[in-house]
Design goal:
The complex is a heterodimer. Chain A has 4 helices and 5 strands, in the order αβααβββαβ. Chain A is an alpha+beta fold. Chain A has a single domain, classed as Glutaredoxin. Chain A starts with 6 loop residues before the first helix and ends in a 5-residue tail after the last strand. Chain B folds into 5 domains: 104 residues, Glutaredoxin, CATH 3.40.30; 212 residues, Rossmann fold (3-Layer(aba) Sandwich); 75 residues, Ubiquitin-like (UB roll) (Roll); 90 residues, de novo design (two linked rop proteins); 56 residues, Alpha-Beta Plaits, CATH 3.30.70. By secondary structure, chain B is of the alpha/beta class. In chain B, helix 17 packs across helix 21. The chains are: A alpha+beta, B alpha/beta. The interface between A and B is large, with 41 and 38 residues. The structure holds flavin mononucleotide, iron/sulfur cluster (3 copies) and FE2/S2 (inorganic) cluster (2 copies). Chain B: It comes from Natranaerobius trueperi. Chain B: GO terms for molecular function: 4 iron, 4 sulfur cluster binding; FMN binding; metal ion binding; NADH dehydrogenase (ubiquinone) activity. Chain B: This is NADH-quinone oxidoreductase subunit F.
Chain lengths: 125, 598
């Protein structure tokens, strides 16, 4: 560790340090991976890990990755929900690791829903 | 950069370590490995969480789900269900006492919901061994502000404006104390942190040091800068090994980052911090005794003035502050005095941490805004009496030399001046709840016994007076009290208070005098009728068998360790009062309510 020599140094250091407790901050933006028995069988763990990697690579810290149990749509596993602040939750089905960059880039970052993967959407739309 | 999808926080506090927290940590490591989760889930050992009787506590983030009383056998279920499958383990969650509803997040439990956590906000949330986590939470920002953005005087003014008052007991305004020492011409000056915490049963300062050591270090550096001290000491009891270890680790990390040591944050300010491990005598917590102990001399108080701010450590200007006081300082600097005064009352801003113990459902550490009533702490946070049918009769506030407040005084707010005016004191933050099964005479005797054994012996009234008082209390609880004993104790008590040198002697008679004020009848029962109404003083407890209720089942006779019970089968039994030692076993055994306290 090198010494911090100014207020700016401390601020910069803090930004980095925030990573260490990121997983403890529940965010307004959520990415929810279905991890029921069937989800796991369908490869949910791998999808989850790819999400983590991708978010890290892009240094996106305002979204929390969390997991949920079976939501009763087992035939469509892996299921991934994206719930952004103030918006309805969108559920994607049959998500493969290859789909992860699209979900992140289009939906999480740019707010555009990845329509071909959507299986659950609020009624109104 | 490390990235984990989940953090599992396990309390590694002394309290939890004495339950089986270390084994649980081990088990988690094992289970994570077994399930291939080591790279996804991070284990974090935190400090104190507060709700002791439900320890150990495990919190899983990002959901923030809290599990209580986790045993080794529960670990695999948490790992498999929650971490692997994303399903919560409901049976380990907190269940609301009244509604039976399960509460997944610890901050929604009554015990935590009503608290305001400033000093304890990092305790149980961050890893105390990681300076990065402390900094991520905004740590060392107050120090940076103080050093870079403010002039020295401005920092003092800010602390004066915050009206922060010493949490070590006396409530002296912290900023004013710093100003006094800062104005002294003599050099060098010293900054001392008082972490002696000698109250039996108090664990506030220890918990802060164990759970958030950097907050104390940061407060020390700021204080040192303000008064112009380049050396600081933390005096902590050698027996608090975990606190000592964490503190040393934190000091090392802060030095590596240039937040402690020479040329802090490139500002040219120097401050070195040393840990002094003391042998631990109650009187060493008194500030003049404390500085002597640091010098390597016997910890004995000396007359003041001169105050420590004029002549403290090695005769040089010294500020002594309590751990909790110092832990408030970084937040005041980081957020401003106005933010701090939003909490609490105008004359006592901020919060106070209490160690809630005794006959109350939820024991543990609670932090509330100043001005909260004792009743709210005991009933809303503490959940009321430990046994439904037992009425709470009093609360002892301020440790072994504190005051006993009867039930009808519980609406008093915890605030320095109001408590003083009511003839009590804030003290160090001990709150001991007593119910009808607590004998106030016995309680006072135990407090006085502790204090008496801790008297340094320098002044006669404290050394001899407390011994005389103890003798009187002992004979009263043995049924050998003499008429005039109560008056004699009042007289002795006043004399000790008025003629002792230091705070130990001046406060020693408090428990006795305050219980005499509101529970004189209970003393008289012991004295005149040789009866202990609470059934505690074993020499006075007399058991009897009500012949009409007794069916002669012989159960009591069989458990009596001294064969004091006689009687024919199916005939009423009888207790021989001369043989009975008052152990109470027969009362517990009898299913027919035939055994009663006489
Ligand atoms: C017998 C006795 C024991 C004391 N023990 C402690 C103690 O354990 N911790 C503490 O901070 N203050 C203790 N004090 C109070 C200190 O003398 C001093 O007032 C305090 O450390 C000042 O810090 P503060 O202004 O931050 O409260 C004790 C006082 C007396 C008379
Ligand atoms: S009052 Fe008691 S503890 Fe204090 S200096 Fe005198 S003898 Fe020692
Ligand atoms: S246990 Fe109760 S009922 Fe039985 S002999 Fe003893 S007093 Fe009587
Ligand atoms: S109180 Fe104990 S000693 Fe006395 S009669 Fe009952 S069992 Fe025997
Ligand atoms: S220390 Fe673990 S919860 Fe109390
Ligand atoms: S719960 Fe850990 S110390 Fe009380």
């Amino acid at each position: 560790m090198s010494k911090l020599k100014s207020l700016e140094d401390l601020k910069r250091y803090r930004e980095q340090a925030k990573e260490t407790i990121k997983a403890r901050k529940t965010n307004e933006n959520l990415l929810i991976v279905g991890m029921g028995t069937c989800g796991i069988a369908a490869g949910a763990r791998e999808v989850l890990n790819v999400f983590m990697e991708e978010l890290n690579k892009r240094e996106l810290s305002d979204i929390t990755v969390t997991q949920t149990g079976c939501i009763g749509m087992c035939e469509n596993e892996v299921l991934v929900g994206v719930k952004k602040q103030g918006e309805e939750r969108i559920t994607y089905g049959n998500v493969a690791p290859e789909d992860v960059p699209r979900i992140i880039n289009d939906h999480v970052v740019n707010g555009k829903i990845v329509n071909d993967l959507v299986i659950g959407k609020p009624q109104s739309k | 950069m490390e990235s984990y999808r989940s953090h599992v926080l396990i309390c590694g506090d002394t309290g939890c370590n004495s339950s089986d927290s270390p084994q649980i940590q081990e088990k988690f490591t094992e289970e994570l490995e077994k399930n291939g989760l080591t790279n996804e889930v991070k284990l974090i050992i935190t400090g104190y969480h507060g709700l002791c009787e439900l320890a150990p506590i495990v919190i899983v983030y990002p959901e923030g789900t809290s599990y209580f009383k986790v045993s080794q056998d529960d670990v695999s279920e948490i790992v498999e269900e929650h971490l692997l499958k994303g399903r919560t383990v409901d049976r380990l969650m907190y269940h609301d006492r009244d509604s039976e509803e399960k509460i997944p997040y610890y901050n929604e439990i009554d015990f935590y919901k009503q608290q305001e956590r400033i000093v304890l906000r990092n305790c149980g949330y961050i890893n105390p061994d990681s300076i990065n986590e402390y900094i991520a939470q905004g740590g060392y920002e107050g120090l940076a502000k103080a050093l870079v953005e403010f002039e020295r005087e401005e920092v003092t003014e800010e602390v004066i404006k915050s009206n922060l008052r010493g949490r070590g007991g006396a409530g002296f305004p912290t900023g004013e104390k710093w100003k006094l020492a800062g104005q002294e011409p003599a050099e060098p000056k010293y900054m001392v942190c008082n972490a002696d915490e000698g109250d039996p049963g108090a664990f506030i300062d220890r918990s802060i040091l164990e759970g958030d050591p950097h907050s104390v270090i940061e407060g020390m550096v700021i204080a040192g800068y303000v008064i112009g001290a380049e050396i600081g000491y933390v005096y902590v009891r050698a027996e608090c090994q975990l606190a000592v270890r964490r503190l040393r680790m934190a000091i090392e990390q802060a030095e590596q980052l240039g937040l402690l040591g020479e040329n802090i944050l490139g500002t040219g300010v120097n401050f070195t911090l040393k840990v002094v491990e003391g042998a631990g005598a109650f009187v060493c917590g008194e500030s003049t005794a404390l500085t002597r102990a640091i010098e390597g001399r016997r910890g004995m108080p000396r007359p003041t003035p001169p105050r420590s701010t004029e002549q403290g450590l090695w005769g040089k200007p010294t500020v002594v502050n309590n751990v909790e006081t110092l832990a408030c300082v970084p937040y005041i600097l980081a957020n401003g005095a106005d933010w701090f005064t939003n909490y609490g009352t105008p004359k006592s801003p901020g919060t106070k941490v209490f160690a809630l113990t005794g006959k109350v459902k939820n024991t543990g550490l609670v932090e509330v805004p100043m001005g909260t009533s004792i009743r709210d702490i005991v009933f809303d946070i503490g959940g009321g009496g430990i046994q439904q049918d037992n009425e709470i009769k009093a609360v002892q506030i301020g440790g072994p030399s504190g005051f006993c407040l009867p039930e009808d005084k519980l609406d008093l707010p915890v605030e320095f001046d109001t408590l003083d005016d009511a003839g009590a004191m804030m003290g160090s933050g001990g709150l001991v709840v007593m119910d009808e099964e607590t004998c106030v005479v016995n309680e006072s005797k135990l407090h006085l016994k502790f204090i008496q054994s801790e008297s340094c012996g320098k002044c006669t009234p404290c050394r001899e007076g407390t011994k005389r008082m103890l003798e009187i209390l002992e004979r009263i609880t043995e049924g050998k009290g003499r008429s005039g004993d109560i008056e004699l104790m009042k007289e002795l008590g006043d004399m000790i208070i008025n003629t002792s040198l230091c705070g130990l002697g001046k406060s020693a008679p408090n428990p006795v005098l305050s219980t005499l004020r509101c529970f004189e009848d209970e003393y008289k029962e012991h004295l005149e009728n040789e009866r202990c109404p609470a059934g505690v003083c074993s020499d006075l407890v007399k058991y009897q068998i009500v012949p009409d209720n007794c069916i002669g089942c012989t159960a009591c006779a069989r458990v009596c360790p001294v064969d004091a019970i006689s009687g024919e089968k199916k005939q009423p039994h009888e207790i021989d009062p001369d043989k009975c030692i008052g152990c109470g076993e027969c009362l517990k055994k009898c299913k027919f309510e035939a055994v009663v306290l006489g």
